[in-house]
Specification:
Blueprint: E1 2-5, H1 11-16, E2 24-28, E3 43-48, H2 51-60, E4 67-71, H3 74-78, E5 86-92, H4 100-113, E6 114-123, H5 145-148, E7 163-174, E8 180-193, H6 210-221, H7 224-240
Parallel strand pairs: 1-7, 2-3, 2-5, 3-4, 5-6
Antiparallel strand pairs: 6-8, 7-8
């Protein structure tokens, strides 16, 4: 069992170094905060049971076409995925919302469908969070209290020797009402490496202009001298026009 202990400031960067770029991401229960580690995957599948979260997320990403939004409970969706059908499965701030048996089942299913990695984030131990009052807004000021309730607590021993961990002992500073806690609580990321990241097959267009797309393709395929000459000729042509 490989465990890395980090400070709160170092945590996200330390986790990010362990997560390679992949093209197809399955994001379980993202709420309004999709996974932040893999920038611009070719396909980012968000599976969320609470529709208002998906609607808000959809607005915030401005209809970015890489996102696929599925409004359904996680178990109904992941069971339809064939073995090794996505690259990386993320379940960040999610497993603690499941009953313990369901959490273990989610881990098994995530390992089944992932080719490269499974990445989990959760509090270290049980973090009390409940929304018994139906009128009480969740921590995002929305009506998802049922989905935000914590139903299980997790420790490193719940995983296994195949997993590696990044642990921060004072990562959580706010309680369920976003008030400062008297004593910060720990959290950890559990990472299961299943295979190497595949060679990139798709070019994700950051700039939708035809020249930007063509330029990136040429940069990858042409010798530097040839590309520089072609770029110079293109600029001269633009000036003439």
């Amino acid at each position: 069992m490989a465990v890395t202990y980090v400070s709160r400031i170092e945590a996200l960067e330390a986790v990010g170094r362990k997560i390679p770029y992949v093209e197809v991401v399955l994001d379980l229960g993202p709420g309004i905060c999709p996974q932040p580690f893999i920038k611009k995957p070719y396909v980012h599948i968000c599976v969320e049971a609470h529709r208002p979260y998906l609607e808000r997320l959809k607005r915030e990403v401005a209809e970015d076409p890489k996102y696929v939004f599925i409004n359904s409970p996680w178990e109904e969706v992941i069971s339809t995925f064939p073995d090794k059908s996505v690259d990386t499965v993320f379940a960040l701030d999610f497993i603690e919302h499941l009953e313990k048996a369901d959490g273990f089942r989610m881990l098994r299913e995530a390992e089944r469908v992932a080719r490269c990695q499974v990445v989990i984030y959760t509090p270290l131990g049980f973090f009390p969070q409940s929304y018994d009052d139906p009128d009480k807004p969740d921590r995002w000021g929305m009506d998802g209290g049922h989905w935000q309730t914590h139903r299980s607590g997790w420790d490193l021993e719940d995983f296994g020797d195949e997993w590696e961990f990044v642990v921060c002992k004072d990562y959580i500073h706010l309680d369920e009402d976003n008030h400062p806690m008297d004593q910060p609580m720990g959290a950890f990321w559990a990472i299961r490496n299943l295979g190497p990241a595949r060679e990139q097959h798709y070019l994700v267009m950051e700039d939708v202009s035809a020249w930007a797309h063509f330029k990136k393709t040429l940069e990858r395929g042409l010798p530097q001298a040839a590309f520089t000459g072609l770029r110079s000729a293109w600029r001269k042509l633009q000036r003439v026009r």
